[in-house]
Amino acid sequence: MIFKKKERKHNNLKAKYDQILLEQVDHARLDYLQAQDSETALVDARVNGHMVQAQTALKKARFSYLYKEAKRRRTTANGPKLFHPEEK
């Protein structure tokens, strides 16, 4: 009882923000995959898609940043939520 460690709010707060980060990573990845598919469709249609390519690059950069941040924080998903390419 005397030497028992107290539970800190920091752990709960970190877990909360880690969960938010994982949700953002998942959402950013799905956005990136969708943008990549759209870019492929427009390039195949021979449409001038510089804006689409720029948006795809932006979404890729956002996903990469969020993924690296989650990796740096050593967060883990509690289930198989991340990386579902078949869901759109």
Compute the separation of the termini in Å. Answer: 51 Å
Overall form: rod-shaped
How many helices?
2
- Quaternary: single chain
**Quick one: biggest sheet?**
none
Number of strands: 0
State mean pLDDT (0 to 100 scale).
79
Kindly estimate the percentage of residues that lie in beta strands according to DSSP: under 5%
Which class do the helix and strand fractions yield?
Answer: mainly alpha
User: In which range does the helix fraction lie?
Assistant: 55-70%
Element-level helix/strand string:
HH
Indicate the low-confidence ranges by residue numbers: none
Radius of gyration: 19 Å
Pfam families: DUF2508 (PF10704)
Organism: Fructobacillus broussonetiae
Protein name: YaaL family protein
Describe the structure concisely for a colleague.
The chain is mostly helical and 88 residues long. Helix content is 68%, strand content 0%. The protein is rod-shaped.
Topology (SSEs and partners):
Blueprint: H1 9-44, H2 50-73
Helix pairs in contact: 1-2
